Amino acid sequence: MSAISREDVAHLARLAHIEMSDAELDKMTGELGVIVDAIASVSEAAGADVPATSHPIPLANVFREDVVGETLTVEQVLQNAPDSEDSRFKVPAILDEE
Amino acid sequence: MAATTESLVDFDEALEKYDPVLGFEVHVELNTKTKMFSDAPNVFGDEPNTNVTPVCLGLPGVLPVVNKTAVEYSILIGLALNCKIAETCGFARKNYFYPDTPKNFQTSQYEDPIAYDGYLDVELEDGEVFRVEIERAHMEEDAGKLTHMGGSTGRIQGADFSLVDYNRAGVPLVEIVTKPIVGAGKRAPELAKAYVAAVREIVKNLGVSDAKMERGNVRCDANVSLMPKGADKFGTRSETKNVNSLRAVEHAVRFEIERHAGVLEAGQKVVQETRHWHEDTRTTTAGRPKSDADDYRYFPEPDLVPVVTTAEWIEELRARLPEPPAERRKRLKAEWGYSDAEFRDVVNAGLLDAIGETIAAGASAAVARKWWMGEISRLAKNADTDPEGLGVTPATIVELNGLIEAKKINDKIARQVLEFVLAGEGTPAEIVQKRGLAVVNDDSALGAAIEDAMATMPDVVAKIKDGKLQAIGALIGPVMKATRGQADAGRVRELVLEKLGIEG
Amino acid sequence: MTEIIKLSAVELAQKLRAGEVTSVQAVQAHLDRIAAVDGGERGVHAFLHVNAEEALAVAAEVDAIRAAGGAGAEALHPLAGVPIAIKDLIVTVGQPTTAGSKMLEGWMSPYDATVISKIRAAKLPMLGKTNLDEFAMGSSTEHSAYGPTRNPWDLDRIPGGSGGGSAAAVAAFEAPLALGTDTGGSIRQPGAVTGTVGVKPTYGGVSRYGAIAMASSLDQIGPVSRTVLDSAYLHELIGGHDPRDSTSLNEPVPSLVDAARQGLSGDLTGVRVGVIAELQGDGYEAGVQARFNESLEVLRAAGAEIVEVHCPNFKYALGAYYLIMPSEVSSNLAKFDGVRYGKRVIPADGPVTIERVMGATRAAGFGDEVKRRIILGTYALSAGYYDAYYGSAQKVRTLVQRDFDAAFEKADVLVSPTAPTVAFGLGSKTGDPLAMYLNDVATIPANLAGVPGISVPGGLSEGLPVGIQFLAPAREDARLYRVGAALESLLEKGWGGPLISQAPDLASAEKEGVA
Ligand SMILES: [Mg+2]
Ligand SMILES: [Zn+2]
């Protein structure tokens, strides 16, 4: 039983900013269903008393002193830009709010 | 999204029926030498994309490293806000796509902020103290700067394209979040302004931020909701983004209270949404409603390790805390010799630091107060900004005052000179020189003007000779006219008496 | 020239030092080999970019320093002049870095990865950039946007993945050394199926700065070579603290070369080797199991004490991995949006807004497997699912670490087959993502726990290589080199030479039209 619906996948694709055709959504829904079913047992494996591990080797307080280093030149900054103008990256209109 | 009415309910009427609940998220940019996670310079106003490393640009393969000074500044802010400091805390990724965010996630803190559970005692205009509870203060990074091009207004709406400068991307921020503030009533707008002013004062006092609101060093998001009087359940809130002057904070809260009341009185529902503040009209307009797109998928930042604070470290930092603002105010009031009323006005105007710096630069306490509370405040009001936002430096005031004391210019001309300074014409002395504004106290030139005036007004001269010295005033007008306002009135009086052989 | 390319890195380095071969000759021999076997319809296709000019220039520089003698020559790194291939996930100034994706086609990094800076400082000529599954996501190198790499042992089979290019390059004598990255087995599994050596160092042992992140808490750069000793030299070169990587261990690199040399004596007296009960049997091919069992006998004969260990939570490791990895992927790959670098696609119709440009760019720039993982990770992190998926997976990670801790109480190193099968046919699993994921079942636990692992050749099954994996506690990478080198030397005695010498001769196979 797969909990993941086509609408879920469409929503996830929007969150992930990947445009998907109807056919892709259908295919992805099927594949994700199989994968999620196969790995869902993870959610029952560990009890509430087990702490989460986000970093495999525990370290703490790794800091940098507040000393200025080398910067890129504007040419280097923009060398791979799809589009630029006036030393800045140029992007199409933003319809969303600021 | 339901349409919201724009009909407002008068503020006082609104407050008769509803209790406002406020909440603030204040972002403070730290003035570290480098950015939060990269060793790029943290400098305001440089040429676009010149303070950028591969990390700031989110290039493939880069990794963040935490700026220790930024952590310490954050702890200092937490301590100054009477917060608890986390024994251990970590960074988290806040995921959302926006072109000013190079990685398309912001590195921030989520479940475990560096500082939490604090408070700030905010003094209102009449001296009443209101305690604002602080929920948390967390570390994060700033975004780049977007400039919207084309279209008619230069605003985001209708722009053809935008340009992105990543100089600001990664500048360290501390976001200070209050708990819901209940009970301010009619004083909500005033409290809003006073709270932001107090935060600004603290971070400036700590030396951890330049705290210039006009540069965006301190930025406020103001949450407002209304609940019917006597209710205990909060209403739906709006979040007005980026209200970036003290006056604007006050006005925005006031406007939102009036707007919410209008919506509720019309029998409609307040929409939970972000609002945009418009300084020109002193209104807010609807931004984006809350939606399922606001799923930020926070998770622990795997590229950064936790911050663990020891008691020794905290105490070492606590020892660096400057005098608390309330005590500092008490001390300054005594040092400057202001009356209660004078001092409160200065505090309410948010000009404690400006006046202090001006005194430090060499002005007397009275002179510093005169300028900041007088002409500079007036100009700021006209320009719809805070006095400090005008850009008057202590050096300018000291120089202007020196010119007055040397009798090179009078008060009236000094005010004009200030406007020329703000217009970028140079220093006061330069402007006086360039524009030929020096007071005419060259006795021969003055003498000629006085003789002309006396010749045309023999009746006045007779009165003066009769001992009615106040009649000299009638001569001063024409003399001023003849010297294009550059005569020193005191010297005119002296010369008239001299010419008539009368002992002043 | 043929002889040069068959030398191990250490042997080549000795000849360079002795003046028997110049670095220019060595580089040229490998460039010739690449020209002979890499291109064409049925070429190995290990390389995405060949860096001939720069490699020859670096080689000439090394030769000049050697010729001048004196302190300059003395100061040269032991591997100076020995050519190396770089997985195209690691950024390099002067060569394109694509990550095997259309998204980064032609992208030129303005900075070097830390490991690349070290390689430049040690003056190893870089032959070029090797193929990989797109953004290192896959176990077969078939998910490369630039076409699959072929296994030199059988050109119709996969070379493993994601580092199939680096493994195949080394197996095909196109390079004596290569760099790989290992997030769930991407160095070790290709090593296993190509009959080469691959090491995943302790997490934090090698700087990740400049390795394009797939899953930050799992990724690790490591060496790829034909001998254990060669990997030890390369590992020592690239390892060590890097202030640019906050997860980098601030500890001296252990002496791995010494450990490997000690192992080459073939004596493992007193070494406790733990056989992981959960990583054999069901799902493991008979031929793989047979070679594994033989290896255990060899270890026992060398004096090792073979013990059985149980890691009951390993059965959840694959599931936890396929939640944690895609979660981090979904965030790490968000930066590819067509704003600052890489591909930008303007939608064919409708309004051109940045939102739609990002959506179209990511739709066109990413392949299916990358999209699958991004969507899966977005799901695992999303509101309402986080606790059940990402949160639980991080707990399983704790349980896997506890299993390792308990196992390492009983054993100095653990052992298992590296992969459950030998190299499978190209195209045989591309339609079934889950079947593909199962390839990593034995390698994933090490990434979840951050412990180091090595894969060494363990013989052939039906003519194809089988890999033996050793795992050690975190920071004890040296143990892997000792035990790995011992097994290698003992097995080679039985084979009468390195396993790789049994690989088909690619150049002549091509000429005769035999595949
Ligand atoms: Mg906020
Ligand atoms: Zn914030």
UniProtKB/TrEMBL annotation, chain A:
InterPro entries from the UniProt entry: Asp/Glu-ADT_sf_sub_c (IPR036113), GatC (IPR003837)
Pfam family, one: GatC
KW Acetylation (keyword) present: no
Catalytic activity: L-aspartyl-tRNA(Asn) + L-glutamine + ATP + H2O = L-asparaginyl-tRNA(Asn) + L-glutamate + ADP + phosphate + 2 H(+); L-glutamyl-tRNA(Gln) + L-glutamine + ATP + H2O = L-glutaminyl-tRNA(Gln) + L-glutamate + ADP + phosphate + H(+)
Keywords of the record: ATP-binding, Ligase, Nucleotide-binding, Protein biosynthesis, Transferase
Coiled coil regions, renumbered to chain: none
Domain of life: Bacteria
Gene Ontology biological process terms, A to Z: glutaminyl-tRNAGln biosynthesis via transamidation; regulation of translational fidelity; translation
GO MF annotation: an example: transferase activity
Entry EC number(s): 6.3.5.-
Subunit structure and binding partners: Heterotrimer of A, B and C subunits.
Family recorded in the similarity comment: Belongs to the GatC family.
The protein's role, per its UniProt record: Allows the formation of correctly charged Asn-tRNA(Asn) or Gln-tRNA(Gln) through the transamidation of misacylated Asp-tRNA(Asn) or Glu-tRNA(Gln) in organisms which lack either or both of asparaginyl-tRNA or glutaminyl-tRNA synthetases. The reaction takes place in the presence of glutamine and ATP through an activated phospho-Asp-tRNA(Asn) or phospho-Glu-tRNA(Gln).
Name of the protein in question: Aspartyl/glutamyl-tRNA(Asn/Gln) amidotransferase subunit C
Organism this protein belongs to: Zafaria cholistanensis
Gene that this polypeptide is encoded by: gatC
Automatic annotation (TrEMBL), chain B:
Catalytic activity: L-glutamyl-tRNA(Gln) + L-glutamine + ATP + H2O = L-glutaminyl-tRNA(Gln) + L-glutamate + ADP + phosphate + H(+); L-aspartyl-tRNA(Asn) + L-glutamine + ATP + H2O = L-asparaginyl-tRNA(Asn) + L-glutamate + ADP + phosphate + 2 H(+)
GO molecular function: asparaginyl-tRNA synthase (glutamine-hydrolyzing) activity; ATP binding; glutaminyl-tRNA synthase (glutamine-hydrolyzing) activity; transferase activity
Swiss-Prot/TrEMBL keywords: ATP-binding, Ligase, Nucleotide-binding, Protein biosynthesis, Transferase
GO biological process: glutaminyl-tRNAGln biosynthesis via transamidation; translation
Residues annotated as domain Asn/Gln amidotransferase: 353-500
Enzyme Commission number: 6.3.5.-
Summary of subunit composition and partner proteins: Heterotrimer of A, B and C subunits.
Role: Allows the formation of correctly charged Asn-tRNA(Asn) or Gln-tRNA(Gln) through the transamidation of misacylated Asp-tRNA(Asn) or Glu-tRNA(Gln) in organisms which lack either or both of asparaginyl-tRNA or glutaminyl-tRNA synthetases. The reaction takes place in the presence of glutamine and ATP through an activated phospho-Asp-tRNA(Asn) or phospho-Glu-tRNA(Gln).
Cited PANTHER family: GLUTAMYL-TRNA GLN AMIDOTRANSFERASE SUBUNIT B MITOCHONDRIAL AND PROKARYOTIC PET112-RELATED (PTHR11659), GLUTAMYL-TRNA(GLN) AMIDOTRANSFERASE SUBUNIT B, MITOCHONDRIAL (PTHR11659:SF0)
Family of this protein: Belongs to the GatB/GatE family. GatB subfamily.
Name of the protein in its database record: Aspartyl/glutamyl-tRNA(Asn/Gln) amidotransferase subunit B
Species for this entry: Zafaria cholistanensis
Organism placement in taxonomy: Bacteria, Bacillati, Actinomycetota, Actinomycetes, Micrococcales
Automatic annotation (TrEMBL), chain C:
GO biological process: translation
Active-site residues from the entry: 87 (charge relay system), 162 (charge relay system), 186 (acyl-ester intermediate)
Entry GO MF terms: ATP binding; glutaminyl-tRNA synthase (glutamine-hydrolyzing) activity; transferase activity
Protein name according to UniProt: Glutamyl-tRNA(Gln) amidotransferase subunit A
A family per Pfam: Amidase
Organism the protein comes from: Zafaria cholistanensis
Region (Disordered): 141-160
Enzyme Commission number: 6.3.5.7
Superkingdom, taxonomy of origin: Bacteria
